[in-house]
Amino acid sequence: MKAMMLTGIKQMKMMEVPDPFIEKDTDVLIKMSVTGICGSDIHCYVYGKIGDQVVKYPFIVGHEGAGVVQKAGSAVTRVKPGNRIAIDPAISCFDCDQCKTGRHHTCRNLRFLGCPDQAKGCLSEYIIMPETSCFPINDSMTMDQAAISEPLAIGVYAVKQSILTGEAKIGILGFGPIGMSVMLAAFAQGSQKIYVTDKINERLALAKKSGAFWVGNPDNEDIVKSICGSEPLQLDFVFECCGQQDAIDNAIDILKPGGKLMIIGIPEKDRLSFSINKMRYKEITIINTRRQVNCVQPSLNMMEKGIIDIKNMLTHRFSFEDTQKAFELVSEYKDGVMKVMIDF
Fold it and tell me: 269: pLDDT confidence band, cut at 50, 70 and 90?
């Protein structure tokens, strides 16, 4: 089969690799239909690593996927050949202490699609996944919606973790696909007043079009002054979705005493700093999120019922053969790109 392989920093090549095959009775063979490009894929493409996990070339990235079941192991019950499915890229053991307490997103033995030293990604014609990662979709749903359930579930989980109420005033710092997923999930929870910042004006326009109460570019204005001017009592929750130090600083300044800082973004650097005096004075709570747990199906359900509409998130499409062009577009933030889908 064909697979798009990372072969070096900002280098990709279509290569022939062995076909995957079912080894365990819980395995599912999937023919890929679409794959979305995520910011973590771009980390691997541009820097050759994600966090402390370093790419060993050649390597297949990609983890936002949807496809069609081709074969299923003898013990598989939740899907069958011909089913169209969304794919949860996390492969948990369901046997460790974390899994047994319902925290399979922090599984001690977690493997993740497209993550160095863990599992090959889904930028290939076929992949094998355990049935626990396979979510059948109805005929009314598109493959794009199925694939987007991966980042959307992160937003749904982040909002769930924040214990957000409809009356709460919130900020979203960084309006990429994850920031947008948070906003869509917050709207679904009843939020009405959402402040959004980003350094790309096209994304701010998209945020406004999608219902944001206020948008601002920190490169062009003092967003702390603007937001606090509009909200003298400041914000209840801030979702930091870009992994940048200046966004962390802004978040502390615009949160009210007793507010919550939700850290969703993956920083490019190993360390971030906080103004402990401001945090202590305000008694700010910091909550880290590790992807999501048990939020894929709810995300699919909300899209199916029309509670969440992801059409504004999808901005570009490329063929499988043109994957590197897609990665270049996303890595350079060109043409107002938000989410790129790869069609097989």
Answer: confident
Which pairing describes strands 49-50 and 134-136: parallel, antiparallel, or unpaired? unpaired
List of domains in the chain:
2-136+313-343 (3.90.180.10), 154-288 (3.40.50.720)
Contact status, residue 300 vs residue 146, Cβ threshold 8 Å = yes
Question: CA–CA separation, 187 vs 194, rounded Å?
Answer: 9
Q: DSSP for 88-126? A: --EE--S-SHHHHTT-GGG-TT-EEBTBTTTB--S-BSE
The arithmetic mean of pLDDT across residues 20-40, rounded, is 97
Contact 291/115 with Cβ under 8 angstroms? no
Task: Supply the pTM of this predicted model.
Answer: 0.96
8 A C-beta contact, residue 183 and residue 156: no
Q: How far apart are the C-alpha atoms of 344 and 330, rounded to whole Å? A: 19
Reported as a single tens digit per residue, the pLDDT across 64-96 is 999 999 999 999 999 999 999 999 999 999 999
- CB-based burial, 110-146: b 16+ in 10 Å, e otherwise: bebbbbbeebbbbbbbbbbbbbbbbbebeeebbbbbb
